[in-house]
Design a protein that fits this description.
Helix content: 10-25%
Shape: globular
Number of domains: 1
Number of strands: 15
Number of helices: 7
Strand content: 15-25%
Largest sheet: 9 strands, antiparallel
Radius of gyration: 19 Å
Order of helices and strands: HEHEHEEHEEHHEEEEEEEEEH
Length: 288
């Protein structure tokens, strides 16, 4: 069976058994409760209200990410505290893994993939390796695995079909090994005008190393039209995803304002305003 036929078979498998997928929007949480603290509980600046977004979207999912308790430190993948504990206001309640894999771009890949998995939109889960080769979850769940030799990647049938969350996490760990800010930057679309920023957009500088942060939430002032946004990141080494302070405006922190200056200064990286990118609409990703 060819890889293409296997992917088609996997899609039919998913459609035939949709209840095998998790119904939990945040499936890494084993004990989901209604009393958890979430991103939307971080108050916007005085006079601002959160922007209106459609229920069930990536933006809505990001806005309701669970947070760890107030004052929680940022921990590294090995459980040790990050040396610089002065850059964050809150920590996302999501695991990092025990290896140094889920760094900056990987954390954004994780969030995007987790959202799509929670929606059972498995055909939309695909990312490119640094080599440019596509790694799709539908191929992975069909039992195909990548064989990487230098810059050459081939796929071979090595396992049975498996749509489970644990298998999804194995897929992500493999993506983390072979992808990063360089590959993600090339996948994303340029947001030509930063004033059109949306929740889920990414400031990214592809490189070795590069860096990437994600727009986690937005708010606006009805009177003045001013808009502000929250940013979240992981970093190096792999660490908890955390919501960052604004190092240039303590009175506005943790919010950042739009329009942007020529540069965006975050606690541990400086981006240019043209580093803002976004995920392609689903209609376009379906054709990739």
């Amino acid at each position: 069976m060819t890889v293409k036929r296997a992917i088609l078979s996997a899609v039919m498998f998913v459609l035939a058994f949709p209840r095998l997928a998790t119904g939990n929007s945040y499936p890494w949480q084993m004990n989901e409760t209604n009393t958890r603290r979430v991103v939307s509980q971080i108050p916007p600046p005085a006079g601002f209200r959160r922007t209106e977004i459609e229920s069930g979207t990536f933006a809505d999912w990001l806005r309701h990410l669970p947070l760890k308790k107030r004052g929680a430190p940022v921990l590294l993948h090995d459980g040790k505290p990050k040396a610089n504990q002065g850059v964050h206001v809150a920590v996302i309640d999501i695991d990092t893994g025990t290896k140094d894999l889920q760094q900056c771009a990987d954390a954004i890949i994780r969030l995007r993939a987790e959202y799509l998995y929670s929606r059972k939109d498995f055909t939309a889960i695909h990312f490119n390796f640094t080599s440019g080769d596509k790694a799709s979850f539908t191929s992975w769940l069909s039992g195909y695995r990548p064989i990487v030799k230098g810059n050459r990647v081939t796929w071979a049938k090595q396992a049975n079909k498996d749509i489970s969350y644990s298998n999804f996490r194995k897929y992500l760990r493999t993506v983390f090994v072979y992808a990063g800010s360089h590959s993600l930057s090339r996948e994303l679309q340029v947001r030509k005008d930063a004033s059109h920023m949306q929740i889920g957009d990414v400031f990214i500088k592809g490189g070795f190393p590069g860096h990437a942060v994600v727009v986690l939430d937005m708010a606006e002032n009805d009177r003045t039209g001013q808009r502000v946004f929250l940013l979240a990141q992981s970093y190096m080494p792999a660490q908890d995803i955390h919501i960052m302070k604004n190092p240039t405006n303590a009175s506005l922190s943790p919010w950042y304002k739009i329009p942007l200056d020529d540069t965006l200064r975050t606690p541990e990286w400086i981006f240019e305003k043209f580093d803002l990118k976004c995920f392609a609409p689903k209609s376009e990703t379906d054709n990739r």
